[in-house]
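Attaching the record inline, Q. Sequence:
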Amino acid sequence: MTELRFTAIVPAAGVGARMRADKPKQYLKIHNKTILEHTLEKILSHPYIDKVVVAVSKDDPYFDSLEVSHSPQVIRVNGGSERSDSVLNALKYVVREKLSTWVLVHDAARPCVRLSDISALIDEATSHPVGAILAAPVRDTMKQSDCNGEIETTVDRAVLWHALTPQMFRSEQLAEALTKAMFHNVTITDEASAMEWLGMKPKLVTGRMDNLKITQPEDLDLAEFYLTRDKG
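Structure, as predicted:
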């Protein structure tokens, strides 16, 4: 491990339309705390994470009212219209202020990540030439459809993984990858995809499937269960 203190980036400028809620999903509450608060508090509880840069919409009316937003470890930057824009804005701050050589990018709506998984990611990423992401092997039989919604073929699940977060890369290298990919109008769905576009091969680090991303209304109940269990 090259350093013992790292910076996390949490893009939180999305609106979460699939939740069909009256506010962005990161501000919905579980146990009287917003999802974003759960996520930030979990990330900051890791002994190797020193600061979190949170990218929120410029006109976000919720973030400043959160207690965690006033922590000296939490830095707010303006987000963008896409996740990649928000991450890049946060990266520019990290690089400019020389916060850390490495960054861990984590979804705002993944409050159930385990500290042990973060530790495993840090160990693997910092010893790898590119970096690494948390991921979970696909368990179900996977089907590929045609344009009519009919099964085209069964895909070999042995080589398929669910990409999770955090995803950990060197801050300057990730900023370069995102900048170049966006310049060429490449679709970036996660940080690893930007690195892949440059021909790099990030390491896959097996993480737990209960590190779910809250996307649909039913995910709230499952996240509440996991958070309640982890308190016990």
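The helical segments are 35-44, 83-97, 115-126, 171-183, 191-197, 217-231. The domain at 6-231 is CATH 3.90.550.10 (Spore Coat Polysaccharide Biosynthesis Protein SpsA; Chain A).

More tomorrow.
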